[in-house]
């Protein structure tokens, strides 16, 4: 693997330090949460698999707690990830939208491979080893915190976290207090229709200090704004999200905590909102609707046992996903099959997985701290690919033109550990690693049919790998107001099989795993008696054997390993509270992510120096909020701005572009007793920002837009 030379790193860091010197460091939300209370900035997260204040962690972490999310009106990924330094959120269909961290991606969509960003719920991995069965976008209502970890997290979190990880922590039951929170929202979307949402939480202690139950229900009806002129359906991209969870916490003895979590969420989109630019701003034209559905179910049991010298944490999780998607393929193969139109490409799938982890963590604050653990996961995926044309039944005796069933059985086992030793009061050394073994077996069964011939074929494949992901960090903390750290870490992800079979082009049957090295230098400053936080990171990433989604000359999609990439940049920002009730926050991100070697896809060369998909060079986020919590009616006023520069949507010679837009939002609220009312106006300028752009498999260029101007009212009741 090619490492950066000392001179190249020095040249880059010299330029970057100049740009980021506003903090002598950099990175606003990186380590400081988006909160209106600077003195309460130390949200406790589990970014290191132990509970630690976020600003004590020698890594790039952004944390949002429930209060900070409420201040910006965040309900889903798009509301807070777009405000997080180093993260680009490619909003498309709910459940099918990806986040890219530090530009580590070769597609802005779902690829036929493991993703580069890890998604976790209560530390439970939700990223599949081969193909995503949906990314559950949980409502932030009653969340404890959401932590965004930038840089590879392979040492503690395993595969699929090449670029970083997003960890959602649900709030645990309160063992002593009855708690009720109800929320309702009504909103109207320009060029679209109306939407609404309802949330409810009830916490009930069954036995004080020993047993409690907490339940959460959420419903959201998201307004549509895209008209499908082919099916004559206005505002066709309407989405409903129904979800809920139940948590039971039991404390049978001092030092023993048992927690059970059941979570379920279903996301249903009536018709994917990808528009065709040549038709009109908010128009698409398909012969059939393109609905998507994602369902997620989780059962998680966790034991926390205080052993005195350390804490034992043991978790067992069973997860199940079901998904289905439909796309209009009537013009497939250059329109050669239009006589059989409409033609639908159907992709239903089921995923089951079991994860087990046991770890031992020493108390925080000692001269030597450690965490060691064992991890095992087994996941099975069953995915169908069906090309269906009802009109073809009279000719071929069946409407199915093509059917392929893919069975995946994957395992990941690991031993991991991390230790920190304080050489002195100011210096700390942290070293860790993960010894892992992965296995993936695949069986692809292609049924007989008009496209495949009269014989059913079965192809089997497999991959197996043993590797090690190390991590080393040096931290200098001369006093409580200054921290500087340097970090080197490695990440990896699964290899896998290719499903497609092109009769005129030899598609490789397998693709290998890929990995990257991350080098970063970060700092955090606390100034002006805690009223000013300046935080930041400069980083350099070398990515080898990158997995790239490609297309054969006949248009079939497959994955291959294609050379190297290099990403570098900085994340800088501040949180300033000049007076008690006024908070100003600002962040800036610079990213330079590009290929470092030519590669060939089909008959086309993608040259060295090509910008990676979704790798916007610049992002900024700024907010000013006034929240007089101690005053009568506790008035809240806030204004925020987000900017993301243009970036290619795909890794192709002439890609569609996305980004390049500014968004302004405003909020105003007040509290009276147990009730709180908040008015909000999002995308004030009604900007036509493109959140994802792609050259579709069949219909040509497809754009997904950010939601148009939205006005709404939220009412909260807290007991």
Describe the fold and architecture.
By secondary structure, the chain is mainly beta. The chain has one domain: Maltoporin, Chain A (Beta Barrel). Helices cover 5% and strands 55% of the residues. The chain has 6 helices and 44 strands. The chain has a 23-stranded antiparallel β-sheet that branches. A 5-stranded mixed β-sheet has the order 3-8-9-6-7. It has a two-stranded antiparallel sheet with strand order 1-2. The chain is globular and about 75 Å long. The termini are far apart. InterPro entries: Beta-barrel_TonB, Beta-barrel_TonB_sf, Plug_dom, TonB-dep_rcpt-like. It is a multi-pass membrane protein. Residues 54-165 form the TonB-dependent receptor plug domain. Residues 248-683 form the TonB-dependent receptor-like beta-barrel domain.
Round the Cα radius of gyration to an integer and report it. Answer: 25 Å
- In which range does the helix fraction lie? under 10%
User: What summary fits the major beta sheet?
Assistant: 23 strands, antiparallel
Spatial shape: globular
State the separation between the terminal residues, measured CA to CA. Answer: 58 Å
Percentage of residues in DSSP E strands: over 45%
The secondary-structure class comes to: mainly beta
The fourth-level CATH homologous superfamily is TonB-dependent receptor, beta-barrel domain
CATH topology: Maltoporin, Chain A
* DSSP strand tally: 44
**CATH architecture label name:** Beta Barrel
- Tally of alpha and pi helices: 6
Domain unit count: 1
Mean pLDDT: 89
CATH top-level class:
Mainly Beta
| Quaternary structure state of the chains depicted | single chain
Indicate the low-confidence ranges by residue numbers: 1-40
